[in-house]
């Protein structure tokens, strides 16, 4: 499982001109990709890492501050561009495997008390964010 995590002052996801998820205060935008070998155990580990990641102001985490997270599924994080000019998607989990694992990460975050907004799995989404810093990290489990 792989996530690109950006510290943001606000972020939103729009599908068909409808805002489906938004955070309007400082928090984290999480672009989340699922690998073909990922399991529910990895979803639990990813949720813990995201919740406790100390990249907010003054090295704080969402667990400490209660800052919200906007989680957006992003299969393209497993695009392999080492050969040719067209990415290969063989490492990305198929939708029927990926969607339950993305949902599991979101649920585990909520179980930990996190405020979580989401995109819409499989939809063509427009993601708007105002990066803070900018501060962006890659998290892998």
Could you please describe the fold and organization of this structure?
- The protein has 141 residues and is α/β, with parallel strands linked by helices.
- It has a single domain (2-140), classed as 3-Layer(bba) Sandwich (D-tyrosyl-trna(Tyr) Deacylase, Chain: A), CATH 3.50.80.10.
- Helix content is 24%, strand content 35%.
- The chain has helices spanning 40-52, 62-65, 95-111, and strands spanning 2-15, 18-23, 27-33, 69-73, 116-118, 126-140.
- The model has no long low-confidence stretch (mean pLDDT 97).
SSE topology sketch:
Layout: E1 2-15, E2 18-23, E3 27-33, H1 40-52, H2 62-65, E4 69-73, H3 95-111, E5 116-118, E6 126-140
Parallel strand pairs: 3-4, 4-5
Antiparallel strand pairs: 1-2, 1-3, 1-6
Helix pairs in contact: 1-3
Summarize the helix and strand pattern as letters. EEEHHEHEE
What does the overall shape look like? globular
CATH class (first level) name: Alpha Beta
The SS-based structural class is: alpha/beta
Number of domains: 1
Helix percent reads 10-25%
Percent strand: 35-45%
Please give the largest β-sheet: 6 strands, mixed
Q: How many whole angstroms does the radius of gyration measure?
A: 14 Å
Helix segment tally: 3
Task: Determine the mean pLDDT.
Answer: 97
Number of strands: 6
CATH superfamily: D-tyrosyl-tRNA(Tyr) deacylase
Instruction: Give me the CATH architecture, please.
Output: 3-Layer(bba) Sandwich
Poorly predicted runs: none
The span between the termini is 5 Å
CATH topology: D-tyrosyl-trna(Tyr) Deacylase, Chain: A
């Amino acid at each position: 499982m792989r996530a690109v995590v950006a510290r943001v002052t606000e972020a939103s996801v729009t599908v068909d001109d409808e805002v489906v998820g938004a955070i309007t205060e400082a928090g984290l935008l999480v672009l989340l990709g699922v690998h073909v070998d990922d399991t529910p155990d990895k979803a639990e580990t990813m949720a813990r890492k995201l919740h406790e990641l100390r990249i907010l102001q003054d090295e704080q985490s969402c667990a400490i501050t209660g800052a919200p997270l906007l989680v957006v599924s992003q299969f393209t994080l497993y695009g392999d561009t080492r050969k040719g000019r067209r990415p290969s998607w063989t490492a990305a989990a198929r939708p029927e495997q990926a969607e339950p694992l993305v949902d599991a990460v979101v649920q585990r975050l909520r179980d930990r008390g996190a405020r979580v907004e989401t995109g819409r799995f499989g939809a063509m989404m427009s993601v708007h964010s105002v990066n803070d810093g900018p501060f962006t990290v890659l998290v892998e489990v």
